């Protein structure tokens, strides 16, 4: 099948670290996937639909980065390859403030 147009993605729950996401598993022995999406639209932003594009997704205060590939799995699947996960800035700030408060309390005890 020919891929074209926009691909819209949303993540409803956090994913395991280092877990790839198979979007389309294609098992046709005669024809391969062809073409590509013009763009990938997520709740984080809009990205080019080309091979190797880094795509951002977000769930439960975590920002995930994936690499888009049309050659995943057996070489003929549309897949997001895990790259990294980081807390959103507000979550990271809260963790930093909490850590500083704990460090200050420990200092007072000594």
Low-confidence stretches: none
Assembly type: single chain
Largest sheet: 4 strands, antiparallel
Q: State the shape.
A: elongated
Structure report:
This protein is an alpha/beta fold. The protein has one helix and nine strands. The protein has one helix at 89-109, and strands at 2-3, 6-8, 21-24, 34-35, 39-41, 46-48, 54-59, 62-72, 77-87. It has a four-stranded antiparallel sheet with strand order 3-9-8-7. Strand 7 (54-59) and strand 8 form a beta hairpin. The longest helix is centred in the last third of the chain and has 21 residues, at 89-109. The protein is elongated.
Q: What topology emerges from the helices and strands here?
A:
Elements lengths: L1 E2 L2 E3 L12 E4 L9 E2 L3 E3 L4 E3 L5 E6 L2 E11 L4 E11 L1 H21 L1
Parallel strand pairs: 1-4, 2-5
Antiparallel strand pairs: 3-9, 5-6, 7-8, 8-9
Gist?
With 110 residues, this protein is of the alpha/beta class.
List the main descriptive attributes of the protein structure presented here.
single chain; 3-stranded mixed beta sheet; alpha/beta; 110 residues; 4-stranded antiparallel beta sheet
């Amino acid at each position: 099948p020919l891929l074209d147009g926009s691909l819209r993605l949303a993540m409803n729950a956090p994913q395991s670290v280092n877990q790839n996401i198979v979007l389309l598993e294609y098992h046709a022995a005669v024809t391969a996937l062809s073409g590509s999406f013009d763009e990938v639209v997520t709740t984080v932003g809009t990205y080019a639909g080309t091979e190797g594009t880094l795509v951002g997704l977000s769930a439960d205060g975590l920002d995930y980065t994936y690499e888009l590939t049309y050659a995943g799995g057996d070489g003929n699947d549309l897949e997001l390859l895990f790259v990294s996960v980081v807390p959103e800035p507000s979550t990271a700030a809260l963790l930093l403030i909490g850590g500083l408060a704990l460090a200050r309390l420990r200092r007072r005890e000594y």
